[in-house]
From TrEMBL:
Its main location: membrane. It is a multi-pass membrane protein. Its cofactor is heme. Pfam families: Ni_hydr_CYTB. It is found in: Cell membrane. The chain crosses the membrane at residues 149-167, 194-219, 239-257, 293-314, 357-376. It comes from the Bacteria. Keywords: Cell membrane, Electron transport, Heme, Iron, Membrane, Metal-binding, Signal, Transmembrane, Transmembrane helix, Transport. Residues 184-390 form the Cytochrome b561 bacterial/Ni-hydrogenase domain. Residues 33-57 are annotated as: Disordered. Residues 1-21 form the signal peptide. This is Formate dehydrogenase subunit gamma.
Amino acid sequence: MRALKLLLCLTFLVFGFAATAQDTPVREVPLHVDPGASSVRPPEETTPAIEARPTTGGAQTLEDILRRQRGEKVDDQFRRDAIGDPARAAPPVGPLGTLGGASDAEVFRSLRYGSANTTVSARGPAADVVIQDGGMWWLGFRRGPLLEYGAYFLGGVIVLLALFYLIRGRIRIEGAKTGRTVTRFKAIERFGHWLLAVSFILLGLTGLLSLFGRAYLIPAFGHDVFSSLAIGSKWVHNNVAWAFMIGLAIVIVAWIGHNLPDKTDLKWIAKGGGLFTKHSHPPAKKFNAGQKVIFWAVVVLGLSISASGLSLLFPFQMPMFAATFTHINDLGLPQLFGYAPLPETMAPHEEMQYAQLWHAIVAFVFIGVILAHIYIGTLGMEGAFDAMGSGEVEEQWAREHHSLWLDEVKQKQATDAKAQPPGATPAE
């Protein structure tokens, strides 16, 4: 026991002396300056040299890690090339000969950077992609900026609409109601509108659930509940999409002729459509300038979201972004704004990732537009919902908001009445 105690004491003495020797500075800085000295040189500060790649055995350096943390581009060519060499494999009869010329890490790198000679039994455009390292930027954007700025945008739209209602209030029918109604939309028009509207609401709700569910619903309700919701939402989203596209086609065919711009739109815009002041309703045809903006937004956004949706419904079968980026680069648009050319060659998974992001971004904008449309068609304006509810609107409402269209309807009714023979019963 005494020998063990003596050995421990000697050990502490040796290591204590070594630590003291290491902690002793090589050069001491004087605490005072000699008045007789002509000049004083401050202690030199040495900057640690950047770690060279050979000192790490070809692995990452500290500078690589710091650049990645700062979000800067890191040259990883040294890792892309480190995938082994079959020619270096030892002969089968030699030591470790059965391991080949590539280690597990080197095989992993070749799979990660897409340089491995992969053979698969499945047939498909992306079947041989085992690891898609380039998708990490997409995952980060989807989990971060897409959710954050999308939520801010929709929240901002709701706040603005609420403020507008508090300031302006509901837009009432100012004149005396006549008790007479005018047919505004036929049954086929209302069918196309409601088919488009109901399908869009279902798509919007299920899409937001799929996008935000993992971040917010799983912590609140657990994995099992979210799993059932996600599976159901996916089924609804994929199948209701067809109803949306059919409704969009009906609306375009029915109303595109009435939504072409004309000079009356300038007067409507100059007066703000009468939305901000009372007793200032500008003349308008069947659709005013504001409704035309909504119509063309629905057409452009609807066609765009349908195209990206079809690309997602049929994975790897409808690539569109590489060709689109090529046309954009040919026009010189990225260079005009100081950006590098967009990628013109993409892996199948990259096409799908761009399609998903574009689908979500367009959906956020689309939902914002439709929120404004729903507001003005229900709470924001008296008598507006009747146009799509029953198809009949109060004549005074039509005179205040669509006076030129009402004049056309009245003129047509008078012409039809003159064309009927005496004693004939008007058609219902």
